[in-house]
C-alpha cells in the first residue's frame, strides 16, 4: 500500500478527478490518470453492483492507478457496492457523506488509502478522529452533493491548521490560478469535479455538458429540492449544487413546502426528466466553476489547463523579498 503522500507526489499535475456519480465512470477516471492526474470513479446511491463492476473494470483494465468514491449513508442498504468497488484494487477510496468508520477496514484490506470529504471544521475533526489518511476540504461552491455552509477558502485555512495529514481541496478549483492558490496555502492537491463533468469522457449526456459550458458562475444554486422530489434518502444536512432551472426557481429555497407538496407523480416526472434530459426540470449538478468552463474539452485538455500552475507560484515569489 502506498501512502497518500506518495500517491500525490507521483502526480505530474496535482489534480484528483472527483468521484462523480453519473459523470465519473471508468473512461473518465482512466483519462484523468493517463493525463497526469488521478481519476476516481463515483459510486452513487442508485448504482448497481453490475454498473460499478463495469465502470471500475474499465479503469482497472487501462492499467492506470485510480480511485473510487462512495456515499457512506447509502452503503448500509447496499453493502455489496463497496465490495464491487474494491475488487479491482483502487489506490484511493473516498468515503464521504456519513461515518467512514465501518468501511475503513475493508478499504485498507484491499490495499487502498482512505480520504473523506468534509464541509465544516467539525466534520474535519470527526474524520480525523475516524482515522482517515487524508481530508478533502469541500467548500459550498462545489458541484454536486456536499455541505452548503462554508466556502472553500475559509474552510481550507481552518482545516490546514488542524492536521499534518494531506489536505486536498475541492469546490471551485478550475484553473491553474486556482490550483496555484490552494497549493500555496498548503493543500496537497486539488479535487476537481465540475470541469471534468463537462469533459468529453464524462458520462454526462451531451445536453448536460452543453448546459455546464453555457452557465456562468452565478447560475448555480445549492438545494435539497431535487432529492426531495426524487424521494432520495439523503441525510438532510446534505444538499447539492446544480445549475438553476425552472424547477429550482420554484422550489430551491422552499424545500419545506416541497416536502409537503411532493407526490408520486412529481417523483416519476422528475425521474423521467432525467432520462429525457429535460433540463427545465432535471438537475445538472455543477458548481460555481461552471462559469470557468467555456468550451468542450477532453479530460487531457482540462488537465493541460491546470499545467501552468507553476507560473503563478513563481510570480508569487516576488513576495519572498525581505
Ligand atoms: C456531477 C457531480 C456529481 C458528483 N457526485 C459525487 C459523488 O458521487 N460522490 C462524491 O463524493 N462527490 C460527488 N460530487 C462532489 C465532488 O466530489 C466534489 O466535491 C466537487 O465536484 C468539487 O467541486 P467542483 O465541482 O467545484 O470542482 C459530485 C459533483 C458533481 C459536479
TrEMBL record:
The keyword Oxidoreductase applies. Transmembrane segments: none annotated. Gene3D superfamilies: Aldolase class I. Keywords: Dioxygenase, Flavoprotein, FMN, Oxidoreductase. GO terms for molecular function: dioxygenase activity; nitronate monooxygenase activity. Pfam families: NMO. It comes from the Bacteria. The keyword Flavoprotein applies. PANTHER family: 2-NITROPROPANE DIOXYGENASE (PTHR32332). This is 2-nitropropane dioxygenase. It comes from Gordonia crocea.
